[in-house]
Every structure is written in C-alpha cells, then in structure tokens.
Amino acid sequence: MEDVLTEIPPPSRFFQEDLNNFTPPSSPLPSPFLLFSNPKPDQPLRPTLLIIALSTSSLYVFNHVSSKTLIGSVFLPEIPFSGNTFKPSLGNKSCNIYALNNADNLTLLVSIQCSVSTERSNVVAKLLIGEQIIPERVLIWDSVQSQNFRGKLSSDETCAFKLETLAERKGQDGVCGVSSLLKGLDYFPSGSMVDGLAAALLARCQMRNIRGALCLSWPECGGSVVALIKSILQRTVLHGIDLSSKGDAEDKYLKFSKIKDHPFDSELYT
Asked: So which domain of life are we looking at (predicted)?
C-alpha cells in the first residue's frame, strides 16, 4: 500500500491558466490625468506647436530655456513623487507642461522625465494630443535605439533622422517638404523601428490628421548631439529663443554623460 504522506503527488489536473482563475485579478492602474495651474484654463488648449521632449539630450536643452512658464503637469499614478524637488529639475521623475514665451505663436513644451511603459504609451499619447490639447503641429524629440536600427552606428558618430505624418509631409500648401519642421534631415532608414511613447505619439498625430514629426538623434548623450539639437531648433523651429546653457552646466553635463545610464543629478542640473 502506498504511503500517502511521502509519495510524490500526481501532476495537477489543471492547466496553469485554469489555476489563475482562482486568483483574484489585480486592480487596474488609475488613468493618468492632466492638471493645470490655472483651475479654469481655456480648454481645449490649441497651441500652434506642441513640442514633446523624451530623449536625455533634448530634455537637457529645453531645461535651460529661460523663457518658459510652467502651466501644468501630467500625472501617472505609477510614478512615485519620492525624491522629487519642489522646484522643476532634470533630476525629478516628472512630466511638466510649459508655455514658451514666443511672441508670434503659442508654443507648448512637454518634458517627459519619467519612463512610460509600452502598455501605457497609447493612454498618455491620447491624453497629450487630441483631447485637452489640440495642436496644429507636433514635434517629438527622441533618440535612436541601437537595437532597433538597421545598420551600424558608431559612438563617435552624431546624426539625426526624421519620421513624419502624411499631413506634415504634404505641408500646409500641399507641396511635400517645403515647410517641414525638420527640413534637411534624412528619413529614418527603412527596416529600422521606433517603439514606445514616441511611436504612440506619432501614430496619434497620424490618426488625428495632425502635422506631426519625430526627430531621432544619435547618440543618446554628448556635447555633439546637444549642439545638433540646438542647431535644428534655431534653424527651423524656435527662432529668437535663447538656448544657451547657464554657467558651467554644459561642462557638467558633458562630464556625466560619459558615464553610461548616469541619471541626472538634481543639484547639478537645476
């Protein structure tokens, strides 16, 4: 007779997915939301240009634009506030919305300084484009991910590529490329891939028939790519806005950008 206490139990008659039916489902994450400093802004906001900075270098460049005013923030419940400073800083995990003091047109800047998961990208893209904010044009700044690039990229090479919606490519007058925000840049090579929030934002522009462009720079950090981003901005995007860094901030950035995956320090980059 078998010893029921020491005998190896038979395999379960249930599949793993059947066993999961006995586990209560985890509660869904609350939806992200926008909060503006003006309790009753003229909504929806209709900026002439909406700039969304995702890459480390673009965040650095826009952090030192003095002629901007904080008007709101995007709140993602899964992103903790612990460690953030009261004053906006590159060291914070935040997603702030600024109005750039451009006398000609209303330009909004969204600095996304936190990681947005792939699962949440479409929700955030929908929140930023087409509901409370309806822009005429959108310009997204991100960096090339080497694992998604078809070809070879050297760390000593500095370059930038673009992707555009059909409306941006045709332009306001229907002539391709004449009024492109990223005029002169090569298109992202065929076979290369963009994913995450940048892809969701550009797809959102395409769905809403908004003139949208995505600039992908390489490498992620470094003085050369910062200079390239500034050059593009001053040439075709932000005329007359000072993009110079304060004091020795750029020297500190160059020093720490040499360390791979080094986070921004709130004291160094305020």
From this structure: Eukaryota
Least confident of 18-27, 84-93, 245-254: 245-254
Beta strands 33-36 and 49-53, pairing class: unpaired
For residues 139 and 50, give the distance between their C-alpha atoms in angstroms, rounded to a whole number: 6
With beta carbons less than 8 A apart as the criterion, state whether 19 and 12 touch: yes
143: which residues sit within 8 A by CB, 6+ positions away? 54, 55, 56, 57, 216, 217, 218, 219, 220
88 near 94, Cβ under 8 Å? yes
pLDDT digits (tens, 9 = 90+) for 204-229: 999 999 999 999 999 988 889 999 99
pLDDT tens per residue across span 156-197:
899 999 999 999 998 855 555 557 899 999 999 999 999 999
Displacement of CA 200 from its chain's centroid (Å): 10
Judged by DSSP in three states, 108 sits in strand
How high does pLDDT run on average in the chain? 84
d(CA 216, CA 264): 21
| Sheet order of strands, 68-75 included | 33-36, 68-75, 95-100, 107-112, 49-53, 137-143, 211-218, 159-164, 186-187
Backbone angles phi, psi at 207, to 5 degrees: -65, -35
